[in-house]
Amino acid sequence: MKRTILLLLTCLFIAAQTWGEEVVLAKKWDAGRDPAAYLVSEKLDGVRCLWDGHHLYTRNGNLIHAPHWFAAGFPSRAMDGELWMGRGRFSEVASVISRGSATDQRWHQVQYRVFELPGMAGDFTARSREIVRLTTDAGIPWLLPVRQFRVKNAAGLRKKLESVVAAGGEGLMLHRADAPYVSGRSALLLKYKPYDDAEARVVALIPGRGRLAGKTGAIEVETMDGRRFRIGSGFSDSDRANPPPIGSIITYRFNGLTSSGLPRFPRFLRLRPADKTGRL
After folding, report:
1. How far is CA 77 from CA 50, 57, 64, 130, 228, in A?
2. How confident is the model at residue 3 (pLDDT cuts 50, 70, 90)?
3. Domains, the chain, ordered by start
4. Phi and psi for 55 in degrees, rounded to 5?
5. Mapped to the 3 state alphabet, what secondary structure does 176-213 carry?
6. Global confidence as pTM
């Protein structure tokens, strides 16, 4: 019995290490790069999700309680992707996951869009082709590859970004076509959006005044490197009545940095789904 318990704890530890810290994270695209060297895809407005061959996890290693039918028939190899319900529906898919109910009927509207195969040898071009093969062979309507395509130059990339944003999308992802699989934040994977965004932890709620009396006027947040600032815009009336709780992680938009290194014109974008680790 003791040996069984020890083995279980070891497996849980390995899973937390693998899925909590070893996913690939994007850096920001800059205009000096040649987009012809990259495979490009739309940046989906969903929830990052890892499949280990048996279960679904958030990027920080929390088990996602999906219905059994949802992942039945998924390939046995590890996959990385997004749980997605469509453009502009992040809050809905986040609600499905945060609720933690495998009986939530909204799971029938969720897709798992795969964009990476952790640990697979070869370059990203080969991995993207294997993703298409795996998802096609599985024959599951809600298991789909993230479509990868190429652009010839910077003008073509800008035009594609404008098209995606005009249709309600977030932006683009660019992955070096010749890149091996890597983990952690890497310049081999880049995000290209019409604005900057980042995550921070909520440390205080600031009461509103005047029209906002009785609601939250702003939140004070702290970044991973310890910088603190307030965010007072981007909230709906519902957000202000039910603000992100202290300790939660939020995503905010901003327009570059000030001379003191703080985000310029920060505005609230969304609350990250419940995360037991509290890590950024």
Report:
1. 11, 14, 17, 11, 41
2. very low
3. 29-192 (3.30.470.30), 196-271 (2.40.50.140)
4. -140, 160
5. ECCCCCCCEEEEEEEEECCCEEEEEEEEEEEEECHHHE
6. 0.74
